[in-house]
Amino acid sequence: MRYKLDKIYNFDNIENKISKFWEENSFFYSKVDNNKKKYSIVIPPPNITGKLHMGHALDNTLQDILIRFKRMQGFNSLWVPGSDHASIATEAKIVENLKEKNLNKEKIGREKFLDYAWKWKEKYGEMITEQINKLGASCDWTKERFTLDENCNKAVIEFFVRLYEKNLIYRDKKMINWCPKCLTVISDSEVNFKEFDSKLYYVKYYLLNKKDYLVVATTRPETIFGDTAIAVGSEDSRYEKLIGQKVIVPLANREVTIIVDSSVEKNFGTGVLKVTPAHSMVDFKIGLKNNLDIIDIFDKTAVLNENGDKYENLDRYQARKEIVKDLIENNLIEKIEDIKNNIGTCYRCSCNIEPRISTQWFVKMKELAEPAIKVVKENKIKFIPKRFTKIYFHWMENINDWCISRQLWWGHRIPAFYCKNCNNIIVSRNRIEICTKCNSKNVIQDEDTLDTWFSSGLWPFSVFNWPKNTSELEYYYPTDVLVTGYDIIFFWVAKMIFSALEMTGKIPFKYVFVHGLVRDSQGRKMSKSLGNGINPLDIINKYGTDALRFALIMNNSPGNDTRFSDEKILSSRNFTNKIWNAARFISLNLENKNFNLELDLDNLLEIDKWILSRYNFVVKEITENLEKFELGVAIQKLYDFVWDEFCDWYIEFSKINLNNQVLIYLLINIVKLLHPFMPFITEEIWQIFNDYNFKEKKSISISNFPKFSKNLVFLESEKNVKNIIEIIKSVRNRRSELNISNNKRTHIYISSENYENYENLKKFKNILIKFCYAKNIEFNKKFDIENSIIVITNFSKIYIPLDELIDIKAEISRLEKELNLSNNNLENITKKLGDKNFIDKAPKNIVSKTIEIYENLKAKISKIKLELEKYVN
Fold first, then answer.
1. Which residues pair with 444 in a beta bridge?
2. Which CATH superfamily is domain 192-348 in?
3. Per-residue pLDDT averaged across 644-655, rounded?
4. What DSSP state is assigned to residue 445?
5. Torsion of CA 560, 192, 362, 185, to 10 degrees
6. Beta strand ranges found along 398-546 (DSSP E)
7. Beta strand pairing status for 509-515 and 382-384?
8. Where would one find coiled-coil regions in this protein (predicted)?
9. Rounded distance between C-alpha atoms, residue 389 and residue 519, angstroms
10. Residues 582-588: what's their mean pLDDT?
11. 626 and 705 in contact (C-beta within 8 Å)?
């Protein structure tokens, strides 16, 4: 059995060993225990589309800190892991993968495609599990779930059927958002609007007399073959006489009527709108009001169909080029303007969305949104930080019905069945073979699947096997906190809230802890195009998991983006080494193998009281920070305390008079404080010191988190040692300014008018001698020391005689000579720069160099003067 730490912290071997130790001992397993308070988190399930990125690393680190903290506080803590089937994203990846094998989705058919998809899930699901484990996540892996597993599927079907039975789900033909690349409808919340450089085409629409015309401004001339009317504003007097007349659609040569509609913007373009009901949300509404024909000119890939005349089989953008070219040739374009245009794009593939009329399934949202708004307004669910409630309310208060059907195979298939004989629609929890209306066996199931967010919205309670009323559902639900990025508040968070309230009558979680994005060192979003993406596993392999976690949390604040840089990760690595070296020093200096963690409060030195009191208040502050989700603030305080006060000051002070009991007490409790943030190194140190029989838990992960103690409050000692540190820093800084090496020592004289300070200083004489590099120190109320520099602190004067350290006269003489020389050089340079001929005729680089010399000389002279002033004092 070993009792000493290795010289170097070998994170690779240690992390693998510790992970295995945690797994073998099931420290993170949780079961229902009604005698204990629970704390539960369900992981935001990562998509099974590939490797985890830095955003996942941050998200999982935040959750792990919270769950480890609560576990150490004695809560029955459960973190449920899992992954998301991510219909649209995963299907796109699989289709791409099949193409590489010269296979086609439609040709191999649904059954074989799903076989490929499940194999994909097994491969990438295992990879994700390994990566989450690598991050040190203390999940209960016995409860791992998948959003497409059997129990989740039962929950999804139950949700659909219940909403349908309450008339909250319906099927209708509507204008929807169509992605021509993913080949599926997407909901309004999945449309990202981006600004593009576009053209505004002013197209002539001739009246039937073929002399007069109206000019229509449009950004989409390729939809001209779908025009079924021309609309003008109801309050636009310019076109009042033309209402009801007909115009000829350019190139299509069809007659359409000029109608009036209040939605036409008078100040956009010419105030005349071409109405294309099949390919515009606005135009579709105008078409319904005016009973206009609907002409669909695109197929599902946004290629012009047979209604596109000679432009059939052209992609929409190629068709635009050809149509504009032909309009110009026929003198049908008056002008073209450059404009900025906001265009809806697919949130998954960034392809421009195509508005399209289609029969789909929808959820009525107004009724579901009201209670979801209410629980947030009543603070039953709190957003951290609070400002994100505005985003939530804005979306929920302006919500449209949710299109939930998707033209995909990978996902939860819609539990709706159609009778081909009588057109009966049956929504059922079970598969339907015979029509319930006409008894026909000619029944087929809807081909479409449900929106991924439909199943993800049930995640907080479906993981506990809802709709069954299980003991786990009763105990762990509602969960305590959801940790998530601000970019999916409306995608996911809102859906979980209204789904939970509708299905369980309870909120899904008490807090929504919102974090920002992980950006690069320049503040840019990480992306493939910029080549600035960082694989968290690469950082782990080079620096260790603890260093990665520390770097992600340092300076992190709720709701704000965080920058990840080389400086941060190097600082993290250095901190890891600092902790290890401190633990190693203590292990090398322990006198025996048996310790308990009880302090002998009656036999403490002043420095012991100081560090214990400082530690005690750090415990209090960090606990408060963690409870308020201020994780970045907490780790900064810990860093400052461990690095500065414990390592740089207390350990150095303690070398004069070692108190092993205090050292080990502090070390053990410091690693407890650090454990939620840096689980591996703290567990390793814990295990090594556990061999000293201080009778603690088998793992630090289930030990007790430190608590504030009134018995460890020593405010007077804190004040005294703070004063001592100020003296030491001041003396060292002054010696450094004078370039005095540490091996040169002299007497130091310290005076203080305050008797109490004066007496307290004497207690620290040995410390002051050592750390101020003194031969001896004398204390008195007043001193008058010649040839010395004086350092003034808040409560004392320190006299440092220079006779033994520096030849003051020689140093002053040297500095004065250097000052005279520099002043002469500056005078010459100043004359040169004042010469107009030199400025006008000399090469620019010579002038610039001369100005640089001038500035450097000024800086040098200022520095010399400051040096001389030091000796005057």
1. 418
2. Valyl/Leucyl/Isoleucyl-tRNA synthetase, editing domain (3.90.740.10)
3. 94
4. E
5. -140
6. 402-403, 405-406, 416-419, 425-427, 443-445, 449-450, 479-485, 509-515, 518-519
7. parallel
8. 805-832
9. 24
10. 91
11. no
What is the token pair recorded at 658?
Answer: 């070692």
The number of angstroms, rounded, from the C-alpha of 283 to the middle of its chain's C-alpha atoms is: 39
DSSP string, 580-606: HHHHHHHHHH---S---S---GGG--H
**Exposure pattern of 692-727 as b/e (b: 16+ CB <10 Å)?**
beeebeebbbbbebbeeeeebbbeebbebbebbbeb
d(CA 447, CA 111): 12
Structure tokens at 597: 């963690």
Query: Can you list the alpha helix ranges (DSSP code H) found in 649-753?
Result: 652-654, 660-674, 679-690, 715-737
Report how far residue 383's alpha carbon sits from residue 765's, in angstroms, rounded to the nearest whole number: 53
Cα of 424 vs its chain's centroid, Å: 48
DSSP 237-297: GGGGGGTT-EEEPTTT--EEEEEE-TTS-TTSTTSEEEE-TTS-HHHHHHHHHHT------
H or E element in which residue 196 lies:
strand 191-206
pLDDT 10s digits, 104-114: 998 999 999 99
Place of tokens 């599902």: 300
Fold of 809-872: Helix Hairpins (1.10.287)
Chain-centroid distance, C-alpha 75? 27
Beta carbons of 387 and 557 less than 8 angstroms apart: no
Residue 147: closest CA among 78, 80, 83, 52: 83
Mapping DSSP to helix (H, G, I), strand (E, B) and coil, where does residue 421 land? coil
Give the C-alpha separation, 361 to 140, whole Å.
37
Whether 2 shows a pLDDT value over 50: the answer reads no
| Assigned architecture for domain 545-713 | Orthogonal Bundle (1.10)
pLDDT attached to residue 760: 80
The token pair at 97 is 């993968």
Q: Supply the pLDDT for residue 660.
A: 82
Annotated binding-site residue? 860: no
Spatial neighbors of 452 by CB under 8 A, at least 6 apart, are 84, 85, 86, 87, 88, 89, 147, 406, 411
